[in-house]
Amino acid sequence: MENILYKILNIAQTYPDLARDVTTVLRWVFVVLAAYILLISIFSLLTTRCTPEIWGYFLVENGGNYPITHWENVIGRSKSADINIPVRTISGNHAILARREETKWILKSLSENSDTVVNGYKLIPGRRYLINTGDEIVMGGVHCTVAPASVEESRNNEKMRRLDKEPVAPWKILLAITLFQLLTIVQLIIGMGEDLTAGAVLSIVLLSVVMWTYVMVFKAMGSKGFEMEMIAFFMTTINLAVTSSWNPGNTLKEFVSMLLGLALMIFMCFYMRDLDRTRRLKPVLIGFSVIILILNLLLGTIKYGAANWITIGGFSFQPSEVVKLAFICVGAGTLEELYQKNSTIMYAAFSLFCLGCLAIMGDFGTALIFFATYLVVSFLRSGDLSRMILTGVGAGLMGLMVIRFKPYIASRFDVWGHVWEFADDQGYQQTRTMSFGAGGGLLGLGAGNGSLKYVGASSTDLVFGFVMEEWGFIIAVLLVLCIITLSIFAVMSIMAGRSTFFTICACGAATIFLVQTMLNVFGAVDLFPLTGVTFPFVSTGGTSMLVSWAMLAYFKAADMRRSSSLAVGKEG
User: Of 30, 37, 321, 559, whose CB is crowded by the most CB atoms within 10 A?
Assistant: First the structure.
């Protein structure tokens, strides 16, 4: 590896004009490859459709015949109910019907005023009951039953699935990313010379090996949709290039963090195949989060004004990053959980605890991300927009108080909108980011050729400017488009999702990614105060990289395209 590196370096030093010409050509090639990789993946992800499957029928006396297309369904008089039965004796949200096995269902009565009876047995509201297809159900005096899908319907479903547009095959994209990675190594050698380490080069090569191994293994297992992973692998390539340019000695650590994150994503996907098991994990996640946040308050070290780091034996990590994974899972809920007051109170209390800890740490940016996620998840749980607005106003007032009593946070707001007036003081980082970023133009100066890397936090809080300078405005915008695409996909999953648990997880993860990206990009260019948050997958930092990859499991769990989600077994 080192011999190859030195040979390329000697050629670049012997023929400087040739090296300059190669860099000029590569700048165009990188943009073309990036556009091909990302636009093909994004288009496939947003255009492949999932035909709703009919799991059975809910039959109502006097001719009502309702197809069951979700794993979880609200039955009631309300127009918003999944199975709408317009009879006065039936409550607005009367009961929940959830699929468990091929012929078994869970029925839970929600009504205190109107009875639900199964085979002559009166159900107690709030309790879950296992029922079979064909059982007699009486709701508010109306006779009903659950019937399986007919053989003809099952055959028709299979025909419709074959007509669905298949996800794009991963091989051409893999080849394009691999070429991008190899050319990145060449550009880094030309741009950095002897400062580039063999470990940095090895990290990019190993990323390519892991990428191909991952796709081939899961392709052999029957998986088809790899667009999300392709997007993440490309963004990770940019991360390793940024790290190599900024501090080559840290590149291998970034790769290891990515590898751990990928392993955690795979584990989470397979673990979430059992929804009941995932739900039972909530108390453990809450306890774990409480413990590490308290440890952070007691042992945390201050970096960039916030005491949100724990250092053990020379290894530093951010507990708040890890808690993001738990925060989403605790907030998500099956349809029946959304009607349980205890579940709502538990999530609200957990959110308040997390926000309180972050406020004490002085981590305003992460607190804002948590709060935005809480608002979105709470809205998805209740559908009450007025409550969300009221909560937002109250939090805004508390935020003003935090800014008032936290001088470090207040100083960030003092220069917001006019950093050029403080170009050599509080506005130093942002003015340099905008200057150097603009200097990169559309195509960038080439990896390793930037100057922003010498500014503090350039590879983390200011990474958008870093990418603009070395990789160009086009690639920087494409990276933002990747996060937007994942967010749109999460919203699309709401209609096709097999469970509200997974759709809320996906929307919660999308909120974290989207708000985090907005704060990072807008903060770097002074459209918002600099809050010190990372760009998912792109910013350097082991904890951020690990959590970004693990967070991808929530998007995969909501992917209802056939054989595309690792979190759905073949029978699903």
Answer: 559
Asked if 322 and 352 count as a contact pair (C-beta separation under 8 A), the reply is: no
Buried b (16+ CB within 10 A) or exposed e, 230-245: bbbbbbbbbbbbbbbb
- Judge whether residue 537 has pLDDT over 70: yes
DSSP 411-436: HHHHTTT-GGGGTTTTTHHHHHHHHH
The alpha carbon dihedral of 290, 292, 298, 303 has a sign of negative
- How many angstroms separate the CA atoms of 4 and 49, rounded? 46
CA atoms within 13 A on the CB side of 415: 24
In one letter, which amino acid is 409? I
* DSSP letter, residue 84: E
Q: What residue has token string 């317009």?
A: 86
Cβ pair 355, 327 in contact under 8 A = no
Residue 547 burial by Cβ neighbours in a 10 Å radius (0-12, 13-18, 19+): buried
Strands 83-84 and 72-76: parallel
Neighbours of 398 (CB within 10 A): 14
Sheet order of strands, 56-60 included: 64-68, 56-60, 142-148, 137-139, 116-118, 121-122
User: Cα separation of 516 and 324, whole Å?
Assistant: 12
Quote the pLDDT of residue 51.
Answer: 61
118: its two tokens = 């199964």
Chain center to CA of 572? 22
Tokens 């990928």 belong to residue: 262
Q: Would you say 443 and 27 are in contact if contact means Cβ atoms under 8 Å apart?
A: yes
Q: Which of 134-143, 337-346, 349-358 has the lowest mean pLDDT?
A: 337-346
Strands (E), 173-328: 301-303, 306-312, 315-317
Q: Helices 542-557 and 319-331, interaxial angle, to 10°? A: 10
CA nearest 303: which of 534, 548, 547?
534
How many helices and strands, by DSSP H and E, does the chain display? Answer: 19, 14
Q: Residue 323 and residue 310: Cα distance in Å, rounded?
A: 14
Q: What is the dihedral of CA 522, 525, 528, 532, to 10 degrees?
A: 80
Taking the C-alpha atoms of residue 180 and residue 173, their distance in angstroms, rounded to an integer, is 10
Encoding tokens for residue 512? 């974290």
Question: Residue 472: which of 177, 31, 29, 33 has the closest Cα?
Answer: 31
DSSP 94-157: -EEEEE-SSSEEEEEE--SSS-EEETTEEPPTT-EEEEETT--EEETTEEEEEEEPPHHHHHHH
**C-alpha closest to that of 479 among 282, 237, 154, 235:** 235
| 104-109 β-sheet, strand order | 83-84, 72-76, 95-99, 104-109, 128-132
